[in-house]
């Protein structure tokens, strides 16, 4: 499989990362099988967070990489607080808290070093320089290889990078969510970091497999773009994506992922994949699907910034993500 460079680290990495937020929901055996299959097939970039499954996801990843540590590149997000039910409790970016979280993650993963350690959200009560300073210490102690950030604005990227070089910035980016192209992506490129987009399929919206209204129990109901008229409007837009995709003989989801991959070699999308079959399909896509400059232009013009209706997060959460 072709590789991409991870920021200025000199590390070669798979062009997509495997997301693990959902692993707690799948059977443990299937998750381990899928992760091992992905690593053996060349997808060596595993994305997790200490709060995914409240530590359970790290334990499962630890088991999956036991005999594959040298091949796997593990990225961990930290600093978000949740209770035993997984309910959001706030953030903790104090230096000692970050060092404490890191110690637990190392144990759960069963590794001596975390490859990419990322602040999940910036704690509004702690200067970013202090949180990043803690990761700089961990790098000097050999417990972390590279510094990363998640859901940060351009100014936060600049401030963090002044303390220690930022290797990667994880943030929502897709044909449906392109605000980062104004300031954040240029800043990521200026400092030579990689962009690690999540929700490149916009929570399934861009697959063309959704219809509205969503079932009452669906968590996506909390996102304004999945509500009422917004959803109806956005589903009509997705039909345009399906039309373009079918002319290429592929699915809308594949085209949305291909578009993200096509926006630069410094972009390494995270994709949730719950089976070996899905891993195979996405590897095939990464290796075979090309976009012509006309197709790229058409997609960029049809799905410009702000075309999809409704915010990406509810009001309360918008306050703690990048804009
Ligand atoms: N930094 C942050 O704040 C943040 C926030 C959210 C997520 N994340 C990270 O990003 C990862 C991905 O999360 P996400 O919300 O972005 O999920 P996603 O990758 O947009 O969606 C995952 C689902 O898409 C399906 N899928 C994968 N490839 C596909 C394709 N080519 N065509 C159609 N469907 C496809 C998979 O289905 P199958 O079940 O069939 O495999 C999977 O269930 C998470 O696991 C997490 O690691 C980070």
UniProtKB/TrEMBL annotation:
This is Aldo/keto reductase. The lineage of its organism: Bacteria, Pseudomonadati, Bacteroidota, Flavobacteriia, Flavobacteriales. Keywords: Oxidoreductase. SUPFAM superfamilies: NAD(P)-linked oxidoreductase. Signal peptide: none annotated. It comes from Flavobacterium frigidimaris. It comes from the Bacteria. Residues 16-301 form the NADP-dependent oxidoreductase domain. InterPro entries: Aldo-Keto_reductase, NAD(P)_OxRdtase_dom_sf, NADP_OxRdtase_dom. Transmembrane segments: none annotated.
């Amino acid at each position: 499989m072709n590789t991409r460079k991870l920021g200025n680290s000199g590390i070669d990495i798979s062009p997509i990362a495997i997301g693990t937020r959902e692993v707690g929901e799948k059977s443990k055996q299937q998750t381990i099988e899928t992760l091992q299959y992905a690593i053996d097939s060349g997808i060596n970039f595993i994305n997790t967070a200490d709060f995914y499954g409240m530590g359970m996801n790290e334990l499962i990843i630890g088991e999956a990489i036991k005999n594959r540590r040298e091949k796997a590149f593990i990225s961990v997000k930290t600093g978000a607080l949740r209770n035993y039910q997984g309910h959001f409790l706030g953030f903790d970016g104090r230096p000692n808290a970050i060092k404490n979280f890191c110690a637990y993650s190392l144990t759960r993963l069963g590794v001596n070093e975390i490859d990419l350690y990322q602040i999940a959200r910036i704690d509004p009560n702690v200067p970013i320089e202090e949180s990043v300073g803690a990761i700089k210490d961990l790098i000097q102690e050999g417990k972390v290889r590279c510094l990363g950030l998640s859901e940060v604005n351009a100014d936060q990227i600049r401030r963090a990078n002044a303390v220690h070089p930022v290797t990667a910035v994880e943030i929502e980016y897709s044909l449906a969510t392109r605000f980062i192209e104004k300031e954040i992506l240029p800043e990521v490129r200026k400092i030579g970091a990689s962009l690690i987009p999540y929700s490149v399929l916009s929570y399934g919206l861009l697959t063309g497999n959704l219809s509205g209204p969503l079932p009452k129990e669906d968590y996506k109901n909390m996102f304004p773009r999945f509500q009422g008229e917004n959803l109806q409007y956005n589903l009509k837009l997705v039909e345009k994506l399906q039309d373009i995709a079918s002319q290429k003989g592929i699915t809308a989801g594949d085209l949305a992922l291909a578009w993200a991959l096509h926006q630069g070699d410094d972009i390494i999308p995270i994709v949730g994949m719950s089976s070996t079959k899905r891993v195979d399909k996405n590897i095939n896509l990464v290796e075979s699907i090309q976009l012509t400059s006309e197709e790229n232009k058409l997609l960029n013009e049809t799905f410009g910034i702000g075309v999809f209706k409704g915010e990406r997060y509810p009001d309360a959460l918008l306050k703690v993500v990048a804009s």
